[in-house]
Design a protein that fits this description.
2 strands; mainly alpha; globular; 11 helices
């Protein structure tokens, strides 16, 4: 669900409120997807949104920014690997530069020193890598708790998880740290998109169809690295 929040907010920035009728649906499991979507919304209202609201209420903004920076820094090795696999040498160099700066001068990533010296953050995942290699996205799917994705992106998430160096560092309570990191990331992402998600739901005639359209806009923009479509 946190992924849904991030995708919808990014899609809103890209194209405003989506037109549910735009483009090919490629949604052969729509009836099931709508049921899963409704389940995710109920779970969000019961658990995730209240946690995100408390996070915003009780954790100061500066602390939330530092937590977000540190979480983003931990994702950098997988981003670097995917930059390399996509043949994006310049982006890979920028990613490595950000990681070194933020891990040292940024105190383990708590402060985004890279951004202050002009090295902007960017996203890269194995789903994008597969797209660059010519793998088709496949049918649209709505996954319980995870939100929208295509089979290509689902495969990419598994590979990205396997690329995470933290997975292989043996420390006491190793898997508890991994779980805690994921949980905080989910709550932080949802907290950053409270108003954006409300706006999309309020302005959409069909929230499910709008979600599907925005997801595709978001992923296409990521695969093109922000360049306009042909």
């Amino acid at each position: 669900m946190h992924r849904l929040a991030a995708v919808l907010a990014a899609g809103l920035c890209l194209g405003g409120c989506a037109d549910p009728s735009a483009g090919s649906n490629n949604d052969p499991y729509e009836n099931t997807n709508r049921e899963v979507f409704a389940f995710n919304q109920r779970l969000d209202r019961i658990a995730l949104r209240p946690a995100a609201e408390r996070y915003v209420k009780y954790v100061p903004e500066g602390v939330r920014d530092s937590i977000r920076n540190a979480l983003g820094n931990l994702d950098t090795p997988a981003i670097f690997a995917n930059d390399m696999l996509q043949g994006r040498g310049k982006d890979a160099g920028a990613t490595m530069g950000r990681f070194l700066l933020n891990s040292t001068f940024g105190v383990a990533g708590l402060f985004d020193v890279g951004a202050h010296v002009g090295i902007a953050a960017h996203h890269s995942d194995f789903g994008q890598t597969l797209a660059v290699w010519g793998v088709e996205d496949g049918p649209y799917m709505m996954m319980p708790m995870l939100g929208p994705m295509a089979p290509r992106d689902g495969t990419g998430q598994i590979v990205d998880f396997a690329m995470d160096p933290m997975l292989y560092i043996a420390i006491p309570g190793h898997y508890y740290w991994i779980f805690a990191r994921k949980y905080v990331s989910i709550v932080d992402t949802r907290a950053r998109n409270l108003e954006a998600l409300d706006e999309i739901e309020r302005d959409s005639l069909d929230f499910y169809a709008a979600t599907r359209s925005l997801y595709r806009q978001y992923r296409e923009n990521e695969i093109r690295n922000g360049t306009p479509p042909p």
